Amino acid sequence: MNISRAEQRALHVLALGGLIRHERACGRKVSEVTCFTREGAVLSDCDLRVFQSLRRKGLIESRNGAPYRISLRGRRMVRAQHDNQGGMA
Asked: Is 82 a domain residue?
């Protein structure tokens, strides 16, 4: 499965404990999304297009109206990335 760079970045943030908050328009359709890192920073390149693509591929999920988090399938698809938040000196 092909995953774009923006999708991969969003998945990596979600795998580290982030979440995607969503707002719905007057119907059931999601109209706005905001991706937060575990520390509370906003990921600016996670827009509605990236969100819809991740959801369509089954890489993120929401349960009972909660914010979207990475799914088990998403965890399997995310590529390993070097994490610059500490490490060995």
From this structure: no
Task: State which residues form the domain around 59.
Answer: 5-77
pTM given for the model: 0.83
Which residues, including other chains, have CB under 8 Å from residue 8's CB and lie 6 or more apart? Answer: 78, 79
Number of domains within the chain: 1
- Assign 70 to helix, strand or coil: strand
| CA separation for the pair 64, 1 (Å, rounded) | 28
* Residue 83 resides in a domain: no
* pLDDT digits 0-9 by tens, 41-51: 999 989 999 99
Residue 88 covered by a domain: no
Q: Are 68 and 20 in contact (CB under 8 A)?
A: yes
